[in-house]
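Changelog note: in this version the structure field was regenerated for every chain. One regenerated record is shown below for reference.
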Amino acid sequence: MPSAAPDRPANGMTKLTNCRLVRGDSLVWEDIWVSSTTGKILRSQATFYDELILPDNTIDLGGRIVSPGMIECQLNGAFGFNFSTLLDDMTQYPENVRHLNHQLIQTGVTSYIPTVTSQTADLYSQVLPYLGPSGKARRAEDGAESLGAHVEGPFLNPGKNGVHNKAVLCEASSLSDLEDMYGRSNITPDPSDPERPTSVKMITAAPELGQMTSLIPALVDRGLVFSIGHSEATYEEASAAVAAGATMITHLFNAMRPLHHRNPGIFGVLGVAASSLPGFPPRPYFGIIADGIHLHPTTIKIAWNAHPDGFILVTDAMHMAGLPDGTYPWTNGQEEHFITKKGAVLLLEGSDTIAGSSITLIDCVNNFLKWSGATIPQALRAVTCTPAAMLGVQGTKGVLDFGADADLVIFSEAEERNNDSAHGEGMSSKLVVDEVWKFGTKVYSRCEKGKDGIL
């Protein structure tokens, strides 16, 4: 139960006790102190023993699990709003983002990179300024925090377009082609204000088209993550992209040349043979959609075993996530299409083309636990410290270390029976989001849910 020390000024400190912290690949029985004033995780021993400071509140978590807040690296939209949308009144766009942020945080996602699909330059210029990093003000009440936008396209291979509109796909021959498409200020740091981040954090493109591979170093120098995706790249072309600075693969296996025994394609850069070559750069990170639709569970386990340190769970969720079954409009480029949602399945109307997902990130974690035999800390790494490292925010996000942002998820643990023989039989752990803390403040409780998901 919470307890507060009487007759002294509040200091914004909370001590969480009787809990298991996710540290590396272990669950460690240890207290954790957080500050709502600084928004940071405190060094509890020094705070209590050296400075003789008592917390405002001490909360007994009854043995529950404390994890860093989850990080989502591919979210096209959710709860009725798609980031690739031009509104009649664009002044309402940030309000839609705010509502999504408040809904998203109650799923355990405290940080994310909003994804904009293949669109026109006009759309990018209008929406990207609203999707840049949003945590500078460090307001817990703002909900989930953008770490910068992810532009997935339009420099994609038309042969692997998925649901991306082929009419807007194009090739780049110079850096100015990307600046003209996304807006120069959205991908180029301001020399007069080097502390101001660009709106875009990650670009997904097909490296085999045009001069894209030769442009990767310049993009990386600007602090952008280059991700290989929607691509027909051979193993050699993918290797060249990695050597040039590509550090991520967008939804591995989906919308790319499949693994072949004579040419392993993009998947091959995760292999031991490639990483052991003299001077070869580290193997890239890669996204995996664990919804049971995009990939077979055994395929997911193969990918994890191939390179567990690069394994990142993503949802690729569309605006139908969190909505009931039905048919919903989607503006694809300049054309309006419709997507049908039936259960977890999203299909482009009138086809069998998968159109993203409607799963939550915690459901991806629980599916991975069920299918892989991974431990809880191993599964949570794929949505915390691994994506944080990929995005270059390790030490600030994705960990429970002193000085990191106090973005936390408190999980209770349940046992779930696996009855599907394809996924394995027996019992597996299931995590339930009980509480979410942002910048040291509790913003969501499953038992105390307030308006719009924020306490």
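Spot check on this record: DSSP finds twelve helices and 24 strands in the chain. Confidence is low (pLDDT under 50) at residues 1-5.
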